[in-house]
Every structure is written in structure tokens, then in C-alpha cells.
Write a structure and sequence with these properties.
The structure is a homodimer. The two termini of chain A are 23 Å apart. Chain A folds into 2 domains: 253 residues, Alpha/Beta hydrolase fold, catalytic domain (Rossmann fold, 3-Layer(aba) Sandwich); 98 residues, Rna Polymerase Sigma Factor, Chain: A (Orthogonal Bundle), CATH 1.10.1740. Chain A is α/β, with parallel strands linked by helices.
């Protein structure tokens, strides 16, 4: 079975940095036995460029972004678990975002959307679970920005989560990662078609977004993958100019940059880019440790050895902190050519481990 | 003693990728005993953003870019060696480049400057040495693009070099590094003020250049340095928007990006960026090894552990290849927070080793 829906949650939604949204809408999908109770439910939290379409369903038979991980007999087994996924706050996939209408003005939010953080996104997931009548779910699973939301959910709602899987995420963004994201944002904002956020429908800042995505692709993968995968020699035909697609890797990046720029809204991208910078489990607490130790459930924390965006030292630090305070933590570093994106490629590795970690029984 | 000059070398200068320049001019500086013979001469080859002003001199008392490495009693001891440095072909520092006049048209080359490679730049250095009457120099020293030129010089002119010091350079650029440079180039070419290379003097593509430089700064340093050096928390005053300078690291990058964009010519940057992509000691040979093994002199090859632009594995591969064919190679990996830029920061380490490597006696 599967289902999809859009739920409107009336009333003010307060934000971590102050201010509020007048209301929020959350787009979601479900798989498995949709009547199963909370303790048989696994929640998937998507990353930056992913929607709630985690896998194919009756309404949308196209493959989802985690088709190989979520389904009958897979890592997150829909024969065993009810699976729920929401499109995240701020992303251009149907939940409230810069693309949706500001109820106070009747026009799309655009660049006036208030800055959110992963803590806000986690509270959206909690509201959806309220709506679905799911109080304490069996597990929450996420990677990258999805992993940050999962950590925030576990920290803010320790009584509502049985187990946590957080992959390639950080408990607090480091300056080195802010630096990389800043460059992508700058490329977008420098695009004259960005028009200070007031771009017109037919004139989108596609070139800036493409640059941001190209840099993103570099950070999501690894040097080793690029050096193994692509031809080292320039195209023998040339041209060899600065702007030409002289190397295979340039054609690859150009392809992905252009494709992304055609489907992702620039204001959403900028909002979510900064949102990830602002990830901090310690925000509002006397110390990072105090904020982290709100997490009480058993945690499976994974880093990838070649992740250059959120290196495994960050997951290791988080795991050690939790472990040293008596939390039940399983920590692994996956060796993978695919770096930060390994969760979208290494299905055998993740499938086996997530399946085991979720267990057979409800908590 | 010190001296500086501009030498015009008449006659066609053929280029590695085909075509030629009608003539070239080379700007250079010298220090030490300017009457010393070739075998008492050390040649310094500059990197992308460095001129021939390696250290202060009578004509220009401002500090040079390697002031702490070259001078009396320093790593390259001007009491012991005659030191020569040329501004490199294609850079905006006085030698022939997109900023200088095309003798065929009387106007600056601009974007019509033909694409060069480090092999061409090395042949410029050789022409300068011809002009100065220096046949076989004691040593050639370079880092980053300077190290690539040094390798190319040693490969093309094995009889003209006694010893080689190549730091943080590669024998052949990898796709992973092409990818990073491409993103910087794209940011410049997307700037509407770039005007397809025909930008006007008062309207330079400064924003695009700043993005390229910001990405450059990230690649020149290391995650560890950024994470140790900069505040991890956002400015408590905010603002927290995508475009604001919310984190200290953003203010740092913005400062360096803006400063660079005010002094570096965009067409020169694009030319030199692609020039480094095209670094390949094997170009025109049956194999990379065959091209590399033209180098016969003793080599001191250095990589830096945290170099994310040209990682130490690339220097190691080069050193092993030379060593396995009987060349006299000293290879070291320097552990340094400063990554690719270590040659501009770790003066004690490099000074001691380069001084030792250059020896006391002429070859």
C-alpha cells in the first residue's frame, strides 16, 4: 500500500531564529501497512535535493530517490514497517517554501521567506506525525541534511523516537563547510537574473545555480572517484580554451549543473544552503554537549571516509560524545569512492546495516 | 645587489598546443652577485598570483612574495647564490600576457591570447637565461604552478639544470583538479561584466573573479586550518540570510576575494587556470613515464599532507616514478595546516631543507 497527501497545519509555526510562519503545509508519502501503529513506523527525512518521493507508489510510479533502500525486502523493509516521508520545509517539493504562497500576501514567499534551520524542519516532521496520530515512532532515518533533521528530531523529541540512523550528517556545521556553501550561494546571487531574489518566471538565474550545483557535485563525490572515472587527457580535437568543455569531467559537471538549474528554485536553494550552515545541536544550550545529550535513543551514526563536505571526523566526534555519556551508539566509517553521496550509491552496505539496526521487533 | 629588467625576445615563440606568439617580453628581477656564473645561479619560478618580485630590491623595496625564503642567510641564500626570477608568461605582472599589446594589432591581446601550457612558460624561462648568458644553472625552484614550470624546465632542458626543487606541483593534472578550476572559471565567465572577454576598463568582472578567488582560497588551505582559525558560531547579531556575512569565515573569504578581483586581470586568470589544467609531462610522448624520465637531475619533491588541490599522492607518484628509474630523488610530505599554500607559510621547514638541498658547492 502507499499513499500521498498534503496536510495544512493551521496556526503560527515559530522558528528557531525568531519570528514565525503563519501556517505550514507538509507534503508526504507513505508505504507499507498504513494502519500500522507508531511503533511500527519508520520516518525517512530527505536531503537537500530530495522530495518525499522516496520510492515509487500508486500515485507516482516513477522511481523514488531511495528506491533501492526502501521497499519490500529492502533495508527499510515496507513488508515490515510503515514508512513515512515528508518533503522538507523550504524545499521546492510541495511543502511550505519560498515557492508556496505567503497567506498574508497571497503571493509566493520568494526571498522574503524567513531563514529556517534543521531544528525547524524537524519540528515540521513532528507536526506531520501528530496529524497521522503517530506518537513515538520506531525509527527515524536520514542522510546529509536528512541526517541533520533526524538528529534534531531525536534531540527535540527524545520521547517520540525509538532508534536513530544518521548518515553523513553533522551535529554542528564547521567553518570549512560554510566556506564551500558560501561560494555556491555567491555564484547564484551574482547571476544578474537572480535580480536580488525577484527573478521572473521566464528568466531564472540558471547559470548561477549551475555553478552552485557543479561545486556541489564536486563536494558530494571524491577526488578518487573523479580520477578513476574520467579521462585524464583533454579532448584531442580541442578546443583548449578556458571556457570550453575540454575535459570529460567538464562535460559531466556541465550536464549535472544545467539539469539541476532547470528544476531547482534559486531562493529555495539559498534558504536550504544557509539552513545547513545553521545546523547546531548546541544552539540555545550552555554547551554543544548539553544540546547533543538531549538525544537518548540508540543511534546508528555513519560517516564516509572520503566525504569532503561533512568528513567522518564530524560523525565520529558526535558518536564519541554520545557514547561517552552512556548512549547506545553504533558508529561506522564506510570506505567509499562516492564520498558524501555514498548513501545514494552503496545500497548493499547501507541496506544490510540499516535492516539489522531497525531490528525485527517494535521497541 | 639586485636588478630588474624587461627583455624583449624577438622572433616567433612557438606554443605547445600549436600556433605561436609573434614575440615575447619577459620581466625579471635578480639578487645576489649579478656577475656570478650559471653554476652559481638559482632560478625561482613563480606561481599563479606571484610576480618576479620574489623579494625586495633597490628598485622596489616592498616585500616580495618569498621574502622569508630568498635573501641573505635564508633558504635560497643570496649571499651564496645569484637568484633570478621571471614573471611568468600569461600573468598580469609585466611579461607577455593578455594584458600586453599584440604586436600584430597594436591592441592588448585580451581573450584572443592563445592558450599556453606550463611547457611554454618553462621555455620562456630558458630564453631569459639565454639572454643573461646562463647556460646550465645550479638549480630551479618552484611551487604550485611554479613547481610545474620547474618540472617542465627540467624535462625540456635536462642539460641546463643541476638540481630541481618542485613543491606542491603535479606532473599531470587530474580530472578532480580540473573540476575545481572549472567552477572558478565558470563564475568569471558568467559575470555579465566579463562580456565574453571584452570587458571595459571601468567595468571589470570583479564579482566573478571574487568567487573564483574565494574557491581558490578554500583549495589553497585546509579544513583543519579553517576550523581552528575561525569562529564556529554565527555572528550573534545576525543577519542570518543566505547572502549575509554571517560567519567569520565568510568575512575572511569576502575580503580576499574582493582584494584579488581588484588587482588580477580576468583574461589572465582564465588563461592561467586552463594552463594548469594542461600540465602534462607526458604530452607528446608515448607514455607519461617517457615524458617524465626526460628529467635527469637530482630532484627534491615535496607534497603537503592537507593539499586538496594537488594532493601529496601526485608528488609521491612522480617521485616514485623517477626513483624507480634510478633518478636521485628526495621526497617528503610536509604535515601542514596550510595545505597547498604551505610554501608561503612554513618557512622554517622549507628554508632548512631547500638550503641543504642546494648545497654549498656548484655542481
Amino acid at each position: 500500500m502507499s499513499s500521498s497527501g498534503l496536510v495544512k497545519i493551521e496556526g503560527e509555526f515559530p522558528l528557531a531564529l525568531g519570528g514565525s510562519l503563519p501556517e505550514i503545509e507538509i507534503r508526504y508519502e507513505e508505504w507499507g501497512d498504513l494502519t500500522a501503529p507508531a511503533d511500527r513506523t519508520v520516518v525517512i527525512m530527505p536531503a537537500l535535493s530530495a522530495s518525499c518521493h522516496v520510492r515509487s507508489n500508486d500515485d507516482d510510479p516513477s522511481p523514488g530517490w531511495w528506491e533501492e533502500m526502501v521497499g519490500p525486502g529492502l533495508g527499510v523493509d515496507t513488508d515490515r514497517w510503515r514508512v513515512v516521508a515528508a518533503s522538507i520545509l523550504g524545499a521546492p517539493f510541495g511543502s511550505t517554501s519560498p515557492m508556496t504562497s505567503n497567506p498574508n500576501t497571497g503571493r509566493p514567499w520568494g526571498r522574503d521567506f524567513p531563514q529556517i534551520t534543521p531544528a525547524d524542519q524537524a519540528r515540521c516532521h513532528a507536526l506531520l506525525l501528530d496529524h497521522l496520530g503517530l506518537d513515538r515512532v520506531h525509527a527515524v532515518v536520514g542522510a546529509s541534511l536528512g541526517g541533520m533533521q533526524a538528529l534534531q528530531f531525536a534531540a527535540q523529541f527524545p520521547d517520540r523516537i525509538g532508534r536513530l540512523v544518521s548518515i553523513s550528517a553533522t551535529g554542528k556545521t564547521t567553518p570549512a563547510t560554510v566556506a564551500l556553501r558560501r561560494v555556491g550561494r555567491l555564484a547564484i546571487m551574482n547571476d544578474p537574473d537572480y535580480a536580488d531574489g525577484h527573478y521572473e518566471p521566464g528568466k531564472l538565474p540558471e547559470r548561477g545555480l549551475a555553478v552552485a550545483r557543479e561545486l556541489g557535485m564536486i563536494c558530494y563525490r571524491s577526488r578518487d572517484e573523479f580520477n578513476q572515472r574520467f579521462d585524464w587527457d583533454p579532448d584531442p580535437e580541442g578546443p583548449y580554451t578556458a571556457g570550453s568543455l575540454t575535459y570529460e569531467v567538464e562535460r559531466y559537471l556541465n550536464h549535472h549543473g544545467t539539469r539541476f538549474a532547470n528544476v531547482f528554485d534559486a531562493n529555495c536553494y539559498l534558504l536550504l544552503s544557509r539552513c545547513m550552515d545553521l545546523m547546531d545541536l548546541g544552539a540555545g544550550f550552555r554547551s554543544y554537549a548539553e544540546g547533543v545529550l538531549r538525544i537518548t535513543c540508540p543511534c546508528f551514526i555513519v560517516g564516509v571516509d572520503r566525504d569532503i563536505l561533512i568528513p567522518p571526523s564530524e560523525q565520529q566526534h558526535l558518536a564519541h560524545l554520545l557514547e561517552s555519556h552512556g548512549r547506545d551508539v553504533s558508529f561506522e566509517i564506510l570506505p567509499s569512492l562516492f564520498g558524501h553521496d555514498a548513501f545514494l550509491k552503496e545500497y548493499d552496505w547501507f541496506g544490510t546495516r540499516i535492516r539489522t539496526w531497525l531490528g525485527d521487533d517494535v521497541d
